[in-house]
Write a structure and sequence with these properties.
The structure is a single chain. With about 325 residues, the protein is an alpha+beta fold. Helix 1 packs across helix 3, helix 3 crosses helix 9 and helix 5 packs antiparallel against helix 6.
Length: about 325
């Protein structure tokens, strides 16, 4: 991670008033650039003496202009440059239709690209488009930029950052609760390392400060999450579902539910399902074929594409061949 940037932020955090303001910055997501939001959290988490109590702080006074005004010219220039790069990355990721990887791209840039000159956001974004997985991505970035990013270190930091927030780029339609975004929500919970806790739907627990949910809470969390206010509502307190057919009749639509008689999972495509398991203690992912899933289902409150209704109609359609056989037998 950039030692220079850490030094800048440690300097800021050494002042109690500035430290409180930057904590509020992280909590309120005042800037769009995720690194500026999350690096202070990473630093603060390693400074055991820092008090995270923000009670009594006037949130209305903490604006981007007020915060930037507290920095010296060099600090302000570097943070502005980081913001500009973050914005360029966001634009290019959107152009390539991979917005769900925006935070990942911004974090990698801000953490490891301090000495990279003539940064081209379009070229950088295309590496994410081409990479089949994160391991291949990190290898590609290392080769193209002459870096030595450690994959395990990157994954640890990325999981921490993703757990600190809820990825605002993963939703395709924030005006509805739909199957595609349900799948994205489930996969994001897996990538972010959500833990298990009974009664939770994606909130952070007060002790370890990590997001948690239980099995049904994974789905209820999506139903209750408001992306605009970044808060959970209380619209749904139970998971209402309808088993539609045997697992062998499952339609290839990301966002449908899977059920094994005791627990639920969300199908995310490519033969994989995400679910929160009390036994292992966190949100996990597996191939559908490796689990004990017996049926597929739909959930109340979720809008599904026509392909799902077509599959349901096909399952419930009368068996014409049986009717013909029966007719023939009666005529004999």
């Amino acid at each position: 991670m950039s030692a220079k940037l850490i030094k800048i932020l440690l300097t800021i955090l050494s002042d109690e008033k500035l430290r409180k303001k930057i904590i509020i910055l992280v909590l309120s997501i005042a800037f769009g650039f995720i690194y500026l939001l999350c690096l202070p959290v990473i630093i603060i988490s390693n400074l055991g003496s820092v008090d995270l109590d923000t009670a009594g702080i006037d949130m209305t006074q903490f604006t981007e202009d007020n915060f930037m005004a507290t920095l010296d010219s060099e600090q302000a220039a570097q943070i502005t440059a980081m913001q500009d790069a973050g914005t360029a990355i966001e634009t290019e990721m959107a152009n390539l239709d991979i917005t769900d990887q925006t935070i990942k791209a911004q974090l990698i840039y801000a953490s490891f690209f301090e000495n990279v000159e003539d940064f081209d956001a379009n070229f950088f974004a295309n590496l994410f488009k081409a990479a089949p997985d994160d391991a291949a991505l990190i290898d590609s970035i290392n080769q193209n930029y002459g870096l030595e990013i450690d994959y395990e270190q990157y994954m640890h930091t990325y999981t921490f950052v993703m757990n600190s927030t809820i990825n605002p780029y993963m939703f395709t339609d924030t005006t509805t609760k739909n199957a595609e975004d349900m799948a994205a929500w489930a996969n994001n919970a897996y990538v972010s390392g959500w833990g298990y806790m009974s009664g939770f739907i994606g909130e952070k627990d007060s002790e370890q400060r990590i997001r948690r949910c239980d099995n049904a809470g994974l789905m209820i969390g999506y139903l209750n999450y408001n992306p605009d206010s970044k808060t959970f509502t209380e619209d749904y307190d139970t998971l209402t579902y309808t088993e539609q057919g045997d697992i062998t009749t499952m339609t290839e639509v990301a966002g449908i539910g899977l059920y094994d008689g005791t627990k639920h999972g969300i199908y995310i495509g490519l033969g994989e399902v995400v679910f929160c398991d009390e036994t292992v203690g966190y949100v996990t992912k597996q191939a559908v074929s490796e689990g004990t899933w017996t049926s597929w289902c739909t959930y109340e409150g979720i809008e599904y594409p026509q392909a799902v209704q077509d599959a349901i109609d096909e399952i419930n359609a009368p068996d014409d061949s049986s009717e013909e056989d029966s007719s023939d037998e009666s005529e004999e």
